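Risk register update: the risk of archive-format incompatibility is retired. Evidence:
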Amino acid sequence: MVGTVNTYRRVIALTGPLLPLVSFLARLPVAMSQFGSFLLVAQTSGSLATAGVVGGALSLGQVVFGPVLGWLADRHGQRSVVLTAAAVNAVATAALVAGALTHLATVPLAAIGALTGASVPLIGPLARTRSVALARRAKSDESVVGAVHALEGTLDEVSFVFGPALVGLAALLAHPAVALGGAAGLVAVFGTVYALHPTAAVTAGYPRTESGGGAPARGRGTGRRVRPPGVVYAVRGSLALQGAMFGACQAGITALTIRLGVPDQAAVVYSAMGVVSAAVGLSLGALPARFGLRLRWRVATGAALVLSVPLLFTDGLWPLYAVVTVLGAAYAPHLITAFALTERAVEPARLSTSMAFAASCLVAGQATALVLCGRLAEWYGPAGAFAVAVGAAALCLTLALVTRVPAARTPTAAFVPGPRTASPVSGENGAAYAGR
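Archived output:
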């Protein structure tokens, strides 16, 4: 326990105590916008179909344009990209609220939803990239880098627990418009603070040059792009399947609670899974180095398969709580390991892009599974949706077993600071931001 606390102290010494807090508050709107837009449009239009179209457009915008924002951050640095995206996202979210309240037609409302998703400032993936860059620049050991991934994964999990909860509370006490208005304010304020934080200097971008320094985008002397290793694509597939598990669980939990006559319990059940997942994810920083990423990937996906099977036989509220809560223990370790594998395998000049691709795969899998599993739950009951979760877990484990995972960082992924990140940002001991 003491060793774990000390490890996280070293992480905070790298980032400063303000950055994790700011990044958490800045990523909350991502978790609020999907659920909040669905509730708002459903209430103002009286149509679940319209709400589904707008929510789908929002997810599609994020999936398609997320990697583009990641590429821009790699190229031009996080500061300018996040500032622009946060401003556009705040305005688009406010426009979505106004459009819903004034009963705008479905097509223009969906277009605004797509813009809202496309402008999500990707604080989660970019915060991972920034924190890892700080750790690599300070020449921290792998235990600290692992703790960085664990902390960022936990912040993601907690945001996706509290985000929908805040939306539900605002809808209960006032109106869903209040929740989305709050999301617009959060992204405008804390997205800006995150962009302007001094640690942004470590992610100032890698100009694409054929020679003369920087992190080149092409293979040395070949003029050809360096393709990411196969493990990167396998991890993206694994994350898409993880998203499918999320979507299937959401659909199955909702269907079962409706069948039991307690539909309001659905969000609480899902939140319980998120709380356990976050707690286990935070404890992952205590694992010794001998538990490598390949072993963690296999154990996490294997646990997800074993722990998801009982969902097929669950038909009561309290058994549902028990099964879903225990299942949450497998989710964060898989997510954290997947992002850590991505960071190990890709070159720093493309880390934001790769992290954004990984996050987009997760969102795409979840959105697709929600649409599919909603129908399956209608036709075959909750078990129809839960069967998709079990199948996705089995495919995740298969990927983990057959994919070749490098035992160490690949040569192309070694940390090489670009010319625009040359100014020291962490000091010789990596603690320049400890007091900020």
